[in-house]
Design brief:
Order of helices and strands: EEHHEEEHEEEEEEHEEHEEE
Strand order of the largest sheet: 1-2-3-4-6-7-8-16
Number of strands: 16
Bound molecules: pyrrole-2-carboxylate
Helix content: 10-25%
Number of helices: 5
Radius of gyration: 19 Å
Length: about 300
């Protein structure tokens, strides 16, 4: 007879991008703040990360969220995000998924909720229609007009910016920002990332290709390649934060003005910012949907219990 560890999770998607929200059965990371808890997760329980998001239970595109008790009694939860290859500082679409999951479970109601993450505390406002507005960590452009020599492509110029994760943002002119070009967009973004990491920016693990909006009312469209070579189906909350930090620096978006960021599926997030010295504090609004209420089983005798790792 099999004896398996049981993990309770709520599956969601936000603008097309999935998040698996682990509610019960996760590793015991002690009474540590989110930053230290992430260190312990990474060094002692990385197999759990892989078991939850990688095949055969998950897929390369799946983002996981481990929900824990917060350190600060004024917070509603503490969350660590992870993916097919590692961990994320913050995750915008994922946080909207977490809020949807907590609402679904009856653990939170409409209003404001503070959530602790390894890169800082964010605030989520749950609206009556179940959409969510996140007030993200302060975001900023670290370097403008960085030129990278990309093998097989030539010189690519873009900005390096922080939005809760590190991004390289560059316009794309020769490949349409359409889902049918996802293979070409992925190859291009991956080549840029490899070149960038070797040419002075090892911290950048997300590449954001951008161009004009394609929907009425849109401000711009993006294609975001995540660290494990999966592309973001959503407009990417942290990527949108990095984008508006760059727009603010360029004087292309004023404080309080709305930027409607489309992703590669044509779904969108609404975004604004307020100034904080040389940084911006972005707000991102989007909506998630519940797709499953799952008990995952982890049987140590299963040769792929801990996922198929890259
Ligand atoms: O929405 O911030 C985001 C995100 C990061 C990676 C995938 N989605």
């Amino acid at each position: 007879m099999q004896t398996a560890k049981r993990i309770e999770a709520i599956d969601t998607h936000t603008a097309g991008e999935p998040t698996r929200v682990v509610i019960r059965g996760g590793p015991d990371l002690g009474q540590l703040n989110a930053t230290l808890a992430l260190d312990r997760f990474r060094s002692h329980h990385d197999g759990f990360r892989s078991a939850i998001v990688n095949e055969p239970r998950g897929s390369d595109v799946m983002v996981g969220a481990l929900v824990r008790h917060p350190i600060d009694p004024g917070s509603s939860a503490s969350v660590i995000f992870f993916n097919n290859v590692g961990y994320l500082g913050m995750c915008g679409h994922g946080m909207i998924g977490v809020i949807a999951a907590l609402e679904f479970l009856g653990r939170i109601s409409q209003g404001f909720h503070h959530i602790e993450t390894p890169v800082g505390r964010i605030t989520a406002q749950l609206h009556p229609d179940s959409s969510v507005t996140l007030t993200n960590v302060p975001s900023y452009r670290k370097a403008a007009d960085v030129v990278v020599e990309v093998p097989g492509v030539g010189q690519v110029c873009g900005d390096v910016a922080w939005g809760g994760n590190w991004f390289f943002l560059t316009p794309i002119h020769d490949i349409p920002l359409k889902i049918s070009y996802v293979d070409e967009l992925t190859s291009r973004a991956w080549a840029i990332r490899k070149a960038l990491n070797m040419q002075g920016f090892p911290e950048v693990d997300h590449v954001e290709l951008f161009g004009p909006a394609q929907n009425r009312g849109g401000s711009g469209r993006n294609f975001v390649l995540c660290p494990g070579r999966a592309y973001d189906r959503s407009p990417c909350g942290t990527g949108t934060s990095a984008k508006i930090a760059c727009l603010a620096e360029n004087g292309e978006l004023g404080e309080g003005e709305t930027w409607t960021q489309e992703g590669i599926l044509g779904t969108s997030f609404q975004s604004r910012y307020r100034k904080l010295g040389h940084q911006v504090v972005p707000t991102i609004t989007g909506r998630a949907w519940i797709t499953g209420e799952t008990t995952l089983l982890l049987d140590d005798n299963d040769p792929f219990c801990w996922g198929i790792r890259q």
